[in-house]
Amino acid sequence: MNKNYVAGIDIGTTGVKVIIFDAEGNKLSSAYREYPCTFPQSGWVEQDGEMTWAMTCEASNDAIAKSGLDPAAIVAIGLSSQRCTFTPVDRDGMALRTAISWQDSRSFEECDEIAEKVGIERYYEITGLPNGTTWTGSKIMWIKKHQPEIYEKTYKFAQDQERILHKLGAEGYYEDWSNGSLYGLMDIKKFTWDQELLDTLGIDGDKLPELVPSGQVVGEVSQKAASLTGFAPGTKLVSGGGDQQCAGIGTGAIKKGIVEVTVGTAAVTLAYMDGPYYDDSMRLPCSAHGVAGKWETEGLQNAAGSSLKWYRNEFAIPEMELSEETGIDPYDYINEQVADIKPGADGLICIPYFASSAAPNWDPFARGTFIGLTLGHQRPTLARAIMEGVTFETREIVEQMAANGVEIDTIIISGGASKSAVWNQIQADIYGKPVLIPAIEEATSLGAAILAAVGAGLYDSVEAAVDQMVQIAGSYEPDMAIHDRYNRYFTVYKDAYRALADAGVYERLVKLALEE
After folding, report:
1. Pfam families, per this entry (predicted)?
2. Which residues contact residue 244 at a Cβ distance below 8 angstroms, ignoring those fewer than 6 apart?
3. Does the domain made of 1-516 have the CATH classification 3.30.420.40?
4. Could you state, in order of their start, the residue ranges of all structural domains in the chain?
5. Fewer CB within 10 Å, N side or C side of the chain?
């Protein structure tokens, strides 16, 4: 009997990864293509959507070639995609402007309008989301206000999930519930676009994609897409999920007690919920899970791995040059240096708001900050401070989840940062809990492949597929003496942000920069 294979395509913020898996979750091959974001103004983050598609085609061809498979053996494709990044497209599927990224914080005035017209309590009640610039809806409002000619010409405001599915061959624009819930326009209890919000905010619902559950067949690879990607014509296209919901599936965070932390470009801390349970403080979202008809609560950090990447690009020039000579990843050199610095980074704290603050503070004006710099600090100390700062922020999210009654028995780490033993240990020490590492680092791609396997009928349910396709490879135990030391740094970390925010320092700086 021929063996079945599935593909998981993860369309991330800074690159696309295509991985071919067998039905037991073993990785046959993978390919990655990097692409940039652009930063036209302070707080603005954009991306060329057509370039994203071109890199998806390249990576797909590469992964299929490396697998040695007949493309026809790949029975289905599932997508994991960066959430909230969207492109206005015309009826022919062509981009009308560059994509606006989820990291973009330009729509703070539109968020004020939402607060005034809808009310932050009512907005949270409908969408499960705190009012903030991350979500797609406020940016659609920005386009309508500042680029009305583009708004009028737009056929669909398409996130990467439905846009790439359409380019692969799906006839319509199908948005899975997990991605749809991050538009900030969906009724989180009904999984439908909310007409009250659309009417109040003046958004045309016909310009939004069709909502469907994750794991549903929505089309098949077209002849044209086959020639561009290397997939066989007729391969099933399955609605996937947001990258973090897919990571939850790909690590097995589909039942109570498991918290999954993905540290990639962003960092997201996710916990499964079997009902739409809200955070009374409205700091953490209640969103749709990639498990159809279930929910998750999560905390988003806009810049996590991208903060360390900024350090690599701007400060680790010697390590980059050495990498060119040796072929060793520059991050390996950075990790070695960080391991030699004691916990607490010699009194240096990083507030990692390099792309403003999402959870738990939802501050569009917040910016990256180093506190405690002295003439005695060397470059690698900044790298350790970044790792610790990102993890402090995750801890604050985890503590808010626990305060909301979420069970937390196990923490699983995924994403690119899970390759760093020193960062994994930092996380265990700051949380004061053991952390588990999955066998497949690329949990987002695996989660998408699991949804593809369910859509193709290889498994009856996501739960059955996870049981067979997800494995744990290792764990890190916390050093409780170091945890106690981190507790004191954690208090300083929180107080430092609060002092700057309450004094209006961040907001004044941002508005001054916009005046220039």
Report:
1. FGGY_C, FGGY_N
2. 83, 262, 268, 270, 298, 300, 444
3. yes
4. 1-516
5. N
